[in-house]
Design goal:
- By secondary structure, the chain is α+β, with helices and mostly antiparallel strands.
- The protein folds into 3 domains: about 100 residues, Tumour Suppressor Smad4 (Sandwich), CATH 2.60.200.20; about 190 residues, Beta-Lactamase (2-Layer Sandwich); about 220 residues, Phosphatase 2c, domain 1, CATH 3.60.40.
- Strands 2-1-11-10-7-8 form a 6-stranded antiparallel sheet, covered by helices on one side. Strands 4-3-5-6-9 form a 5-stranded mixed sheet, with no helix packed on it. A 5-stranded antiparallel sheet has the order 13-12-16-15-14, sandwiched between helices.
- The N and C termini lie far apart (about 100 Å).
- About 35% of the residues are buried.
Length: about 550
């Protein structure tokens, strides 16, 4: 009966912002993780926010299981909070903290090497009787596989692995080919039998052997090309270079355990190809072929792990850039809004992503006039956030005395003339003076709600164009008179289009009804009443748009 069990090794890539990652091999289980050594931790994390008894990794039935051992913020795997979870290759473990440790789990199954060891154990007096130095070759294989968890740079590991392959096969040349962004195989490393680098342009791998290996998803190992099939024997590159032996081993990803309950295994991906050739005929024993297959499996494992590491580091880099963008955007939004002598104000902004496309502001133009606005850039994420920042910079020119209408018309023409930006924005901009005069500009934005004497109505009903769609559009200002106690509720469509778990919208009708029910409350209570109604309605459902709410109440002239 075939034994399906396989030895596994696990390695943790431990990194902290600002420090180079370290690689820690799990040599015993349970493997304890936490702060300080007094709890018997195998991996010490120097962060006062992390619990002393934090987490453990246990080996069970050939797999590795992560357990939360009492970290107060919880343990997260790939962003999901878990009490325990089976770990898979590339899983990311963190502790619910920013600027703290992040651990990437790596594992490799040793089936290929174990098969060679099993084969060798069946041969009597293996060390002396194997033709061609079988034990020596096996030692080379074991040395090569030990590089997998070394701290050497990837390129050094791959180059050394190639040297081992050349030594094991006694080839004249060894080449590692990897796919470029277009999927074409290109030479990444090329070494001679003496370990020296060879110029890639001087190497012409047999495309027939390469193609056959990839199509068959198995190694092509030919001892003597004079005895090979006609297709390979007559291949142009083989004839021109006078080749007598060729080895081509494709390197594919291996299916990962725990990848779901699908009846079909996920398609494997071509990582590269190990190619060796010689002008001398070779004699490959069964053990030689198994060693070559094992070496190919190890090379595939190295490339696959490197690819996953690169993806994880790229994800971390993008997360750091988004975090910087979030911090910049957060710093540009108004904080600690104070009331003005003639205005009371409350505000809330919830981006649905790390950075958002909503924007609001309240700022004095003069001692007599205060400006306030809400804007919503089409789309979400970093692109919307960049345009939001640009709009904020342009609108800040109003504090220099530039007329708001001129600023909006200029911004509109600018965006329209740069069509490649592909973004537009809706906006409401208003200015209230001490005597209650409200001058406002609408650029395709939902009308604010006007609360007057307990009744709720829209400030305007006619539509207009967003900024950045029609270059000939001319925005104009309208004027109304506010009375003491009048309240304006400004919002983005993330409020009315917020959804509950059943997919229903909060909608304008619910918003108006809720505002009316709090019409006699203070500005803060009215504002919080809307947010509470929104929270009760959505019941924790994930939202797909930013939510921005700005409540402004005109008190009186504030004059003595």
């Amino acid at each position: 009966m075939q034994n399906d069990s396989s030895a596994k090794e696990a390695v943790l890539e431990v990194s902290r912002p600002g420090s180079a990652p370290e690689f820690v091999t799990i040599r015993q289980t349970p493997f304890l993780i936490g702060r300080g050594s007094e709890s018997g931790n195998n991996l010490l994390l120097d962060d006062g926010r992390i619990s002393r008894r934090c987490a453990a990794i246990a080996e069970d039935n050939g797999g590795f299981r992560l357990e939360d051992r009492g970290h107060r913020l919880g343990i997260f795997v790939n962003g999901q909070k878990v009490e325990q979870a089976w770990l898979r290759e590339g899983d990311v473990i963190d502790f619910g903290l920013q600027d703290s440790y992040r651990i990437v789990f790596h594992t490799r199954e040793s089936q290929a090497v174990e098969a060679v060891l099993t084969e060798l154990s069946r041969i009597p007096d293996s060390g002396a009787s194997l033709p061609g130095g079988g034990l020596s070759k096996l030692n080379l294989l074991l040395e090569a596989t030990s590089l997998l968890h070394s701290a050497l740079p990837l390129e050094s590991v791959l180059g050394t692995m190639l040297d081992y392959a050349v030594a094991i096969t006694r080839a004249d040349r060894g080449v590692l080919l990897v796919p470029d962004p277009d999927g074409a195989l290109t030479i990444r490393h090329a070494h001679g039998s003496d370990g020296q680098d060879l110029a890639p342009e001087s190497i012409f791998p047999s495309q027939t052997a390469v193609r056959r290996a990839i199509e068959q998803r198995a190694g092509v190992i030919t001892d003597d090309l004079n005895l090979a099939g006609l297709e390979l024997q007559s291949a142009e590159s083989v004839v021109i270079q006078g080749l007598r032996a060729v080895v081509a081993i494709p390197l594919f990803t291996r299916p990962r355990s725990g990848s779901g309950c699908s009846l079909l295994p996920p398609p494997s991906e071509l990582l590269g190809l190990l190619y060796l050739d010689s002008r001398r005929p070779a004699a490959f024993s069964n053990l030689d072929r198994q060693i070559l297959d094992a070496l190919g499996a190890e090379a595939a494992s190295i490339l696959d792990n490197a690819r996953l590491l690169e993806r994880e580091r790229e994800r971390q880099r993008l997360e750091q850039e988004l975090e910087i963008g979030r911090q910049i955007q957060e710093a540009l939004l108004p904080h600690g809004l104070k009331d003005f002598p003639h205005l009371a104000i409350a505000s809330t902004h919830y981006p649905c992503h790390a950075v958002g496309g909503d924007y609001f502001d309240v700022f004095p133009l003069t001692e007599e006039r205060t400006a306030f606005l809400v804007a919503d850039v089409a789309g979400k994420g970093l692109g919307a956030a960049l345009l939001t920042t640009m709009l904020q910079g342009a609108l800040s020119g109003m504090t220099l005395g530039v007329a708001p209408v001129k600023v909006l018309n200029h911004v509109n023409r600018f965006l329209c003339s740069h069509a490649g930006v592909g973004r537009y924005a809706t906006m409401f901009f208003g200015i209230v003076d001490r005597d209650g005069g409200l001058e406002y500009i609408c650029a395709g934005h939902p009308s604010p709600l006007l609360v007057r004497c307990g009744r709720v109505s829209q400030l305007y009903s006619e539509g207009s164009f967003p900024v950045g769609i029609i270059d000939t559009a001319e925005f104009t200002a309208e004027r109304v008179q506010l009375e003491p106690g009048d309240t304006l509720v400004l919002f983005t469509d993330g409020v009315t289009e917020a959804q509950n778990p059943a997919g229903e919208f909060f909608d304008d009708e619910r918003l108006c009804a809720n505002v009316a029910s709090h019409a006699g409350d203070s500005v803060d209570d009215l504002h919080q009443g809307i947010l509470s109604a929104l929270q009760n309605f959505t019941r924790g459902a994930v939202q797909s748009d930013d939510i921005t709410l700005l409540t402004v109440r005109y008190r009186n002239s504030g004059r003595a």
